[in-house]
Each structure stands twice: as structure tokens, then as C-alpha cells.
Design brief:
563 residues, mainly alpha, Serine Threonine Protein Phosphatase 5, Tetratricopeptide repeat, flat
């Protein structure tokens, strides 16, 4: 019962007490105590009210109003056993009060006493046979008791009082299935389909049954007929299209699916499920360009729904349009900033795109929203390190380690990045201590990172180059090894050799990164090919932010040594 109803009930009880006062003056002390209990109850002074009401019961233990008042207080305090006792007393002492019985029934449900609840609800229905709340309460109780036959009889009584509707039909179908009378249930739905020809839920259940029982002909026939009779029925279009699609008639199915997404009627979730199916199906192949108008339609139609923008982000991500994907994911987060998986996807894409400023800002926001997650702190530290803010980077790496749990791969990567930051601060001892920790935890995939850091600061250049030669000999087709070997040649001043190595990976996806294009520009400049150098630096800026000095190279049209 809500607070307003509670107040009204109590005030009514008070009124009764006032009337009694005029007749039985010797009970004035009792009445005053009752009134005081009511006032304290309404003021939420519950413990004081309890003591006053209990004092009333010592004088008049059969006062239903007092028992009911105690029930209300204990219910608010979630002291359900005590609440149940007093509502039982109230209902027993005043059996004509339907309100007491109603509260008793729901109290029984709260305590899991389903049989007792069902009995009280049945009694209430005898007094008020058109009360939908009583039917709902009784049906839930019988459902908890796993008595489908009782529920079925009750629904038939409800239909006699309130009339049949699609919901009651579907509930009876469910119950018949539970009773092992599926054939009768199907006959019920088929008959209801005639009475409710435009009700998609009845059709959906029929179709679901026919397909689960492998009666595909009947299922297809139902949907085909409905689509032909009502071509604007978006739900039917989606269902029919999905059936065609999953049965191998992909192109024909897509026609109906696309029409269903654009139609009125289907819910956002229904449309989303179809789009997710279509987008995810193409993750290993070329994305269907016909999906783009659909995801755009969803974003435009549901501008405040995060999931509509999220599916657009997924589409552009699968299509390889990373910048558009990030924009859509950002819009998703504007609708709902509490979606950590979307934040994580944004951070990963910004990292891959070498968008260090965006990465720093978004990782910072994400870390504020999810302070117990290590990834935002790691990415923020990484972005700061790439921008030359090594001290701030180390602070964030430390925060990442502080909340990290059972992830040795990430822990090793954090130590590796700490080492890189320490080198930036010219603290080689701390750097090599961090590198050692990283490689001790996990050398898998980290050796190249370690060698890159040595190359960047020309530490043990000859030894590092020799190790890269060994790795290249073992895995000559690995573009990342080739890139680091080219960087080694550049640091050694062997610019033509560096260029030859870079050309070996010109067709790899690595070539479409800021890091690759910036190094290529640096090599061209040292080979006095200034225009080629500037062209490559400009390309680097298109792919990402590059190093902290990339903008200086472009503006000054010459090589600038990173600090």
C-alpha cells in the first residue's frame, strides 16, 4: 500500500476511535494512546509508535486497527515475520474488511507462503469477482506452487467476469503446455487467431510452436498469409524475413527484414535484434552496404536510445570506417555514459588510431566513471607518455596497478610502459627494473616493445639490431619485426637500408598508421627527399597524432628530434 492510502486508512481508524470516545469515556486514555501512536507512525517515529500500539494491545488485544497499524510499521521496516503476524490478527479479528485480507494475501506472497496466499486471494475473489489484482495474485501463487490446472480454471473464471483477450489466451496456451496438452493449446491458438486476426503475439506463438516442432510448412504459411494480407505489419515482416533468411533464402529474407526495420509497429529491441544479426553475420566478410541506411535510420528515429547509436558504431567498425564508428560510440555514451563496454571499445579504437589527445580525455572521463577498472588508467597513462608527459603517465600506470586483479598480461604491459616512461625521464635504472618485471611476468608479445624502447634511446643499439635480425630470420613475414628492424637501421644512420626494409611492408595494414608514415618521412628527409618526407608526415597526421614532434616536422618542413 502506498503512503497516501496508509494515511487514509489510519485516519479512518482514528475517526472510529473518536466516535467510540463519545460512548465510552472511560477509554479516553486508550484513545489518546492510540492517537499518539498514529501521529508517531505518520512522523516515521516507528519505534515509539510500536511501543504505544503494543501498550494499546495490552488493554484491548482484539483491536484489529492496532494490529493493522503494527503491520504497516513492520512492513516499512522489512520485518516481514512480525508484519505477517499482525496482518493475520487484523484479518481474523475483522473478517469483513477486504483491505486487511488483501494485505494478508500479499504478505503471504512476500514470505513465500504461496498456498496461504492463494486461499486468501480466492476468498477475496468471491467477494469481488472482477478485481484484476486478485486474479493476478492468485495466478502468481498457483504458478509458484506449479499448479497449472488451478491457474487454468482461474483464468476461465476471469474470462467469464472480464472477457477474453489475447493475453488470457496466451496464458492458457502456456498452461496447457505445462499440463502436457500441447495439442489442445495449439487448437486454442488457432481458434483465437480467427477471433484476434491482427494480434501478432498469438501468431508469433503459433509460428514458434510450428518451427519448434519442425512443421515449417505451417509456420511459413501463416507468416506468408499475414504479410500478403497486411504488408504494413512490421512485426510480421520481420518474422517472415527472418524465417526466409535463416532458411537460406538470404536475399529474399533481407527484403522483408529491411522493410520491417523501416516499418511502424516493431519495438526498438525487435529491430535491434535483426540489425545485430545482419551486422554480426558480416564480421568475417565484406559488410553489406545496404545496411548503412538502416543503421542511420535507427539513429535518426531513436536519437536518445544508446543502443541505436551502438549498432551504428558496430556497423561502421565492421565496415572498417573507424572514425565513424568512434563518433557513433561517442553518441551512444552521450545517451548513456554508464556503458563500460562501449567506453572500452572507444579507448581501443582511439589507441589503434593513435589519437592520443582524444584517448587521454576519454580515458580520464572513463576512469572517473569506473575508478575500479584498470584499463582507463592504463590508456590515459599511455596517451600521456606518447605526448611526453612521463611523470603524469607513471601516476596513471600506478593507479592501474592498484586496481588490477588477476591479469598478468595487462600487468606486464603496464610495467613495460612504465619502463618506457622512465627512459623518457632519463631514469635508466628504474626503466630496466620495470622492463625486467614485465618480461618476467610475460615475454609473450612484449619483446618487440622492449626492443623499440632501446632503439628509441639508442641503448645497446648494435645488440638490439642483432636481436631483431634473429627475429626477422625466424619470422620474415612479420611486418612488426620488419618495422622495428627498419627503425634500428634508421637509428644507426643506415637510411637506405631502412627505406628498403620499410618498403617490404608497404602493403600491410601497418603502413596505414601514423607511426609507419612518420618514420618513413624521417627516412626520406635524411635521404634528402624532402617532398616525399613532407608527404609522408602529412599522411601520418591523417592516420593519427604520431609523436609529440610530428606537428613541428610538418610546420618546419624538416626533421625534428623528439626529446
Amino acid at each position: 500500500m502506498n503512503k497516501i492510502c496508509s494515511v487514509l486508512v489510519i485516519l479512518a481508524l482514528v475517526s472510529c476511535k473518536v466516535q467510540e470516545t463519545a460512548v465510552v469515556s472511560q477509554d479516553s486514555i486508550y484513545i489518546k494512546q492510540f492517537h499518539s501512536g498514529v501521529r508517531n507512525m505518520l512522523n516515521e517515529q516507528y519505534e515509539t509508535a510500536i511501543q504505544e500500539f503494543k501498550a494499546c494491545l495490552t488493554k484491548q488485544p482484539k483491536d484489529a486497527a492496532v494490529h493493522y497499524a503494527l503491520f504497516q510499521i513492520y512492513l516499512k521496516q522489512e520485518r516481514y515475520q512480525e508484519a505477517a503476524y499482525h496482518t493475520e490478527q487484523a484479518a481474523a479479528l475483522d473478517p469483513s474488511n477486504l483491505h486487511y485480507k488483501r494485505e494478508l494475501a500479499f504478505m503471504y506472497q512476500q514470505l513465500g507462503k504461496s498456498q496461504e496466499a492463494a486461499s486468501v486471494f480466492e476468498a477475496l475473489l468471491k467477494a469481488d469477482p472482477k478485481n484484476i489484482d486478485y486474479y493476478s495474485g492468485a495466478l502468481k501463487s498457483y504458478d509458484d506452487l506449479k499448479k497449472p490446472s488451478k491457474s487454468y480454471v482461474l483464468i476461465e473464471k476471469m474470462e467469464q467476469q472480464l472477457g477474453e483477450n489475447p493475453n488470457t489466451v496466451l496464458e492458457k496456451f502456456r498452461l496447457l503446455q505445462q499440463m502436457g496438452k500441447t495439442k489442445d493449446g495449439v487448437a486454442l491458438l488457432e481458434a483465437a487467431r480467427v477471433r484476434f486476426p491482427s494480434e501478432p503475439s498469438i501468431l508469433a506463438n503459433l509460428v514458434d510452436h510450428y518451427f519448434r516442432t519442425q512443421n515449417y510448412t505451417a509456420g511459413f504459411g501463416l507468416l506468408k498469409d499475414l504479410v500478403a494480407a497486411d504488408p504494413e505489419n512490421g512485426v510480421a515482416l520481420l518474422m517472415y524475413g527472418e524465417m526466409l533468411y535463416r532458411s537460406g533464402k538470404v536475399d529474399e529474407g533481407k527484403k522483408y527484414l529491411h522493410a520491417g526495420i523501416l516499418a511502424q509497429g516493431p519495438s526498438l529491441d525487435q529491430k535491434m535484434n535483426i540489425l545485430i544479426m545482419l551486422v554480426n553475420e558480416k564480421q568475417q566478410a565484406a559488410i553489406d552496404p545496404q545496411l548503412e541506411p538502416l543503421v542511420q535510420y535507427m539513429s535518426d528515429t531513436y536519437p536518445n536510445e544508446a543502443k541505436a547509436h551502438s549498432i551504428a558504431g558496430d556497423y561502421y567498425y565492421v565496415a572498417g570506417q573507424t572514425k565513424k564508428a568512434i563518433d557513433c560510440y561517442r553518441q551512444t555514451l552521450r545517451c548513456d555514459p554508464n556503458l563500460y563496454p562501449v567506453w572500452n571499445q572507444v579507448l581501443i579504437l582511439e589507441f589503434e588510431q593513435e589519437r592520443w589527445t582524444d584517448l587521454e580525455q576519454d580515458a580520464s572521463t572513463c576512469a572517473e566513471l569506473f575508478p575500479s577498472y584498470p584499463i582507463p588508467f592504463f590508456f590515459k597513462g599511455y596517451a600521456l607518455s606518447r605526448k611526453g608527459a612521463y611523470g603524469a603517465a607513471l601516476e596513471n600506470f600506478s593507479l592501474a596497478k592498484g586496481v588490477l586483479v588477476n591479469d598478468n598480461a595487462l600487468l606486464a604491459e603496464i610495467f613495460m610502459q612504465e619502463g618506457s616512461a622512465y627512459l623518457g625521464l632519463n631514469k635508466q635504472d628504474q626503466a630496466f627494473a620495470a622492463f625486467k618485471e614485465a618480461l618476467t611476468i610475460s615475454s609473450n608479445g612484449l619483446e618487440l616493445n622492449y626492443l623499440h624502447n632501446l632503439l628509441k634511446y639508442k641503448i645497446e643499439l648494435a645488440k638490439t639490431t642483432e636481436r631483431l635480425q634473429e627475429l626477422a630470420a625466424k619470422d620474415p613475414s612479420n611486418p612488426n619485426i620488419t618495422f622495428e628492424y627498419a627503425f634500428a637501421q634508421f637509428q644507426a644512420g643506415a637510411y637506405q637500408k631502412a627505406l628498403d626494409e620499410m618498403r617490404k611492408i608497404s602493403n600491410a595494414s601497418l603502413a596505414q598508421t601514423a607511426a609507419y608514415q612518420e618514420l618513413l618521412g624521417d627516412i626520406y628527409f635524411h635521404l634528402t627527399q624532402v617532398q616525399d618526407a613532407n608527404d609522408s608526415w602529412q599522411k601520418a597526421l591523417l592516420y593519427g597524432e604520431g609523436s609529440a614532434v610530428l606537428a613541428d616536422k610538418i610546420n618546419q618542413k624538416k626533421y625534428v628530434q623528439a626529446p
